[in-house]
Amino acid sequence: MELMSINIGKEKTLVRPGKTEQTGIFKQSVAGPVRITSQGIPGDFIGDLKNHGGPDQAIYVYGWADYEWWADYLDQEMQPGMFGENLTIDGLRSAQFNIGDRLQLGQVLLEVTAPRIPCGTLAGRMNLPAFAKQFRLVERPGLYCRVLREGTLQAGAPVSVEKYVGETVSLLEAMRDYYEPDLSPDFVERFLAAPIAIRLRKRKEEQLAQL
Length: 211
What we know:
By secondary structure, this protein is an alpha+beta fold. The protein has helices spanning 64-74, 120-126, 131-138, 171-179, 185-193, 198-210; strands at 2-9, 12-16, 19-23, 27-29, 34-36, 59-63, 87-90, 102-105, 108-115, 143-149, 151-153, 159-162.
């Protein structure tokens, strides 16, 4: 696999039915080396700090293989950054990943922490009111990652994957569980044994406390 594009979003106003918001989802590919830090990419705007950003969701990755599928499904041309991802990787299919899998990109090391849960902002960005539902159903969520090792990246960097060997859950299990939670103690504890994002961990800890 290869890093195809690094994408940064400036603050922009998005008007959608019933809401006007400031967002960084309109990302553009940038040339030259870019610094990747534990908090993400400097200068990349995050409008919804409740659900996005922070050290456990510092970088969002999407695969060009998934984009190619979307291009056929939507019958439209796709460009890197359209889904608001920071890194677009050629050959990556997000459904093949588990929480805890690691991506080595040059000197940068990322760890997968959560799937992307689609929202109205993504639907507004695509100008397709039903897109959040479509995104959920086709199960190509992309990868939220924490940065284990900071560094400088440039498009064209090789990408390798190290699979997580501990107890974990797949990205698709995590995505499905968001909509239809499995509240059996064993399943919740399997989530908590994995290196999941802090937002997801908080939700599963609350569920376990209620059991």
